[in-house]
Design goal:
The structure is a homodimer.
Chain A: E1 7-10, H1 15-26, E2 31-35, H2 38-52, E3 57-61, H3 62-68, E4 71-74, H4 81-87, H5 89-92, E5 96-99, E6 104-107, E7 110-113, H6 120-127, E8 132-135, H7 142-147, E9 158-161, H8 164-173, H9 175-178, E10 183-186, H10 191-208, E11 213-217
């Protein structure tokens, strides 16, 4: 049986944050949605609770949400990422911080990965050296998370990080989404590869009018 | 029924080139292995023919191999890539040129994607503007290609490119490896995302002692 965590979702009013908050809550984890505006966070929490038919989710300012949690999910836009992370540095220290942030660009030819020397996850680790940063949940489609409550059993959550214990906790947490433990995808720096892969998935979604996901063949976890 | 092509494999003496040459030949495509040394190419061709129990594969210099083919697979190391492509520019012009080149670095922490503004596939397109460059076959493990003759039906070949007709031909060709048409992964620039994903797969191979591969969920191709 997996451990129960109190999870703050920073950026919980966006579609990816909302979808993951819903799945975490469905799996029994108390969730605190964070937003700049506590009232807006509470509205989104009420929306998720209505769907859950439970009161598992609450809303708060980002700082209060992070302060009350033992695991933090950063589900914020890349635009403004460094400022937001810096503003929460005090509260993020020593916590398991999951980044599912995707630094993407969009133009007339569709989505693409920005040319960056470090990933969003690495940026968070640099800005908050005491945080236990893990990259995960980049590739699960927001609508697939929200539209049903069925586990996305055909997909895999790829988890990267340099803190093996934190990584293992997040691998367990992935079961809330896929029904199975996430895959250890290696060191945190490989977030540079995982994050922009989302551009390829969005491109396929447009081309095939679908919600695509990633599965890894040949790997068996827990 | 898919069309038969004469396929040159530049870098056909390396493991990825050898594995893909074997699969293309197995699917009925005449293959010409290219190498700097025609004698070495012929030795590798003999090795593949012995496994095929047929004479479908021949060896030649890179320039002769490319000159005689209608599709060229570049399966060469990133180191020296620009020089090699430039040296073959005349022969590559107007051909369908598949790049499966992965610009990776390796150090004590394992594999990682190099920080580059353009992918190997984009570099080839820039160096040979008349070539019809397609990125594909980055993620299929060399040993999985070589060790059995079973189609890798659980895996997907992701194909990117800006020439829709060339891309479609390569999607068909993917059936030689997976038994099904490859997935249209979007524009050529997304090779920047596809190529270094191989670092994640190699990392998982070490962690799980396996040969991992990629599958895309939610997409159905012909």
């Amino acid at each position: 049986m997996n451990q129960i965590h109190t999870i703050a979702v920073v950026g919980g009013t966006g579609p990816q944050g909302r979808g993951l908050a819903y799945r975490f809550a469905l799996a029994g984890h108390p969730v605190i949605l964070g937003s700049r505006d506590a009232g807006r966070a509470q509205e989104k929490a009420d929306e998720i609770n209505a769907k859950l038919e439970a009161e598992t989710v609450s809303g708060a300012t980002n700082a209060d949400a992070v302060g009350a949690a033992d695991i933090v999910l950063l589900a914020v836009p890349w635009d403004g990422h460094a400022d937001l992370v810096s503003s929460l540095a005090g509260q993020l220290a020593d916590k398991i911080v999951i980044s599912c942030v995707n630094p993407l660009g969009f133009d007339a030819d569709g989505p693409y990965g920005l040319v960056l020397e470090e990933s969003a996850a690495q940026e968070t680790q640099r800005l908050v050296p005491q945080a236990r940063v893990v990259g995960a949940f980049h590739h699960v489609a927001a609508l697939s998370l929200w539209k049903t409550q069925d586990a996305l059993t055909h997909e895999d959550v790829l988890v990267c990080g340099d803190d093996d214990e934190a990584k293992s906790v997040v691998q367990d947490l992935a079961a809330a989404v896929t029904g199975k433990r996430g895959i250890d995808a290696g060191r945190l720096r490989l977030a540079r590869q995982l994050e922009p892969l989302t551009a390829v998935l969005i491109s396929m979604n447009k081309r095939y009018k679908t919600r695509s996901g990633v599965a890894i063949t040949g790997v068996q976890e827990g």
